[in-house]
Amino acid sequence: MPPFKDEQIIIIAPGSETTVAQLGLPESFTPARIRVRSRMFPAEKEGEWEPFKVRRRDDKNGLPAPPPGDPETRPDDDEVLYEEDRVSEEGAVWPIQQGRIVNWPCFFALVTHVYNTMNPPFHTPILLITQPAWTPREHERLTQFFFEKFKTPAFALMDSALATCWAYGVHTSTIVDVGKDKVDVTAISEFIPHIQGRVIALPDCGGEALTNGLMAKLKYRQFSRDMCEQLKKSPICELLPPGTPLPGTGDANGQDGSANPAALASTGALSSGPEAASALGIAPRGPGADTEVGDEGLEVESEGVLDVASIVAGGKMSEYLARKEKEKQEKAAAKKKGLEAPTAAARPIRLPNSKREKATFMYEDHRLLDVLKGMNLGTKGMGDMHAALDEGPQRSRQEEAEGEPRSAIEANRSADPTSSSRSGPIRREIEVGVERFQAGSSGVLEKIADAIHRAISAVDEVNKRSELWDSLIVCGNGSRLRGFKEALMVTLQTKYLISPSSATIFTSEIPSNISTPAGTGANTPQPQLGPHGGPSQVNPLLLAATTAQNPHLMPPGSNPLMSGMISHNSHSSHGQTPSSIKIVKPPEYFPEWKDVGFDESPFLGAQVAAKVIFVVDQGASKGYMTRPDYNEQGPTAIHDYSL
Amino acid sequence: MNMANATTAPNTNEYAGDEVSAIVLDPGYSTTRAGFAGEDVPKSVCPSFYGQSDSDAGPQYSFGENAIHDPRANLEIRNPWGSDGIVEDWETATKIWEYSITSRLTGARPGNPAKNGLNDAHGDAMDVDMEALESLEKPLEESPLLMTEPGWNPQKAREKYIEIAMEEWGTPAFYLQKTGVLAAFASGKASGIVIDVGAAMTSVTPVLDGMVLKKGVQKSPLAGNFVSNQIRMIFKQAQPEIPLTPHFKVASKTQVDAGAPAQATYKKFDYSPTDSFGRHEEERVLTEFKESVVEVWPGPGRFSNGTNEEIAKSQPGRPFEMPDGWNQVFGVERFRAAEALFDASGALTDPENPRPKDEHTIPRLVQAAIQQVDTDQRPLLLQNIVVTGGSTLLYKFNDRLAYEINAIYPSTRNKLIAPGSAVERKYASWIGGSILASLGTFHQLWISKKEYEEHGVNIVEKRCK
Fold first, then answer.
1. Of A96, A373, B11, B193, most Cβ neighbours within 10 A?
2. Domain boundary assignment for chain A
């Protein structure tokens, strides 16, 4: 068995939205180097796929191009040029939906594209992160594909929930993976997932559902799906814990409302620090709620100017531009007016996002860009249009380029090397009200909470459940939304947490261990055990009494005796779970990951696992299948080689 | 049946060349278990309940755990099993079983890459495509199938099983075995008496050398669902009545003192979730109650005997908190819920729930089953009393069962074989099936497609005894 080296190892983690991959394990584990949106475009020839949208282009001599969608106009022209449009997603096929592979040829093309992007040398073992929704038969199919297409010397599959476990370095936990269009909840004890009760691909709960939630709330303002998507990713969108009042209309005082939105950056978007900063950095002149300009801007928007693309397409371009120009000047004037005061004065009265009634975000209008491209204005025309429409200040581009790659989803969209000022996204500023807190209004959190309860209740060993409740891990890019984890915790706590019963304090406990033996002697009293649990070293009622009424007064872990008792000893006074719910702290020793957040922790876990199975133990744990193994036993044997 | 191989895994070289991993399907009232033969737990455990919502376009069915816990307007929760432990609604039963296999074992569209190209144009229209494809492709064309059946399955039902497997799923080979035998196999026994307390039915099956003694098979409806009903009655008859509120109705709960009325905020629905949905969700709470509160009186004697109740009273109670925050300590009541499994007179009754019959209690079932066995075989069976089924996980169930059996048969050496792990107890018959179907001899047992085509459905009566 030739040992593998760190730099040879390939890890691929396909997802519904983004597929991440990396060649080689760095000294200190980093987030994935390669990020590809999980979609391909059908090529001209049926059965072939292209990683980017390919469209016809013809800009020599400024001839009018054939209208899009009518390729037959000039069938004999050899001069037709094709251009790769790296931003447009029109006609894309997404092979993974709700975690399931729905289009295999497309999926294989995607994997091949990812593989080729890495340009790997010959001797590369591959570790593939699998989604819980993939069935064993599909694992076999993947095995076959990888061995036969890439001639890989070794191949391993790893469940994504298990990978998260490895990343956090815990053996028992409940993994809540919030994806694009689904949520998976997996209870894992001692590194073994409980597959029976696993909640796989719970629909309508992922990031997509949150976008839909925003869309439903903002319907009256005719927000497009793309707007909502970007609003969701902007730092002003937040989930408030259930029961938190929305910033009301009545008490919003004008002064505070005008505070510079840039200040928000300092309120610290928990999971998206740098992203927040960079996104806000480009929006330093948001119209305050109390300025004339701001109100007017809002009015204009509510009149339907959100959909600039259709205005442009409808030929009312110049009208719009003129009005916009006027607005711009007004804004500039307003800005000048208050130039001395604002920056210094506004700072002290910062309000956290959750208290602000309105906030603005930068919207990258891809549709507008598409429309413009469709009009084939030529290089110069495009440039002009772009300059006229783009509200995002150019000077922040530098900043953005630095900050952006950290943002998981946006990375390959706007930090694309091709985004010169001409073809880069057109950004516009949009203001939203309290709707931005209502992404979860369709009951997303409750559904996820219920799924967690179901998954843990389905664990057959009752005594393992409380430990599972005490070690929740929420990961997945769907949970990046600010406040998501906190709100989910509050939902779980208000709905499922079992409080110590006040009754147990007053019932007499003493007789339990010394009850009267029956005449036969068969009733010799036993210490009171939980229904299926181990013995309790501490009187459960003592615990109940000390924690009674107000578990919140007892910060978890404040009393080492107590916390130890709860986790090692399956029962407190309740046989019911959960008597406490905790989220596992992410590991401290991955500095690169710490900055980015652990939303893609499966990838981190895969790095750890790859290091172990490919390098450290050199195949002793049978964590991967080698090529000779495959040749001998065929793809079905993959099930014998897994962690 | 050659049991010598049951404990040792077959050597891969022996027949790995053309090994086809069989699928084992063990349908039950509460869950349907499916998985690949040779594995130690079923990979797929799906609820046998399904959702049905009627619309103008006809009834829409939804399967799987995720679909049936989501409160939607006019979503009815149904079950294809009849109250006698035999499938009633074959059409949906087939769909549920198929779902349990395709959703987690084989994938929705097994091995037909040619078909996939058709979907490229409209990748979003997944559901439509799936349905269309399902009618074209048969889900089990590559895998032999072993199914389990209750011991009292009538011939008609058995023929239906093979028909579904062969015609609808296109399996190349099929075999049917009784749950009792398989549960015994799972414990490594070829002979024994199998006590299976499931959700809908309790059954007692005498097994001799891998064969069920058909006339000895006993069944009764006193099982998990019955205990649930008893708990409901405990709640109802309590003073004041204990409200049973399922999780989905509660938005958030507030801690209240024991016995005090709940002060939760409830969720508002713009439609009313159906009763069957509500009941199914209540069942979740009752399951939790069974797991954490209910205790079987361990003996000696019945719960109602002499001072037993007094003794029970002196034992500490167990607290239970409802999803709406209502909580109380259950003292002596918690012994009553399952008492009727052993003693019919201990049952709680009301006009809708009459007193169960004496001969339906577990001791009487065992007695009746043993009665049918030759006297000289009885000691052998009593040495191998295999306990299986999810409801046997009730706290102290085995203590009481041992006491009851020893009381009836004081002179024999009675031994309970009850796997300690909950997984093995719950899925015993599936595990037995997994063992059987991974044996090298399995292909001698099964009915091949060719044989089926030659002889028709009644071959199942001849071959699967």
1. B193
2. 10-56+85-161+588-640
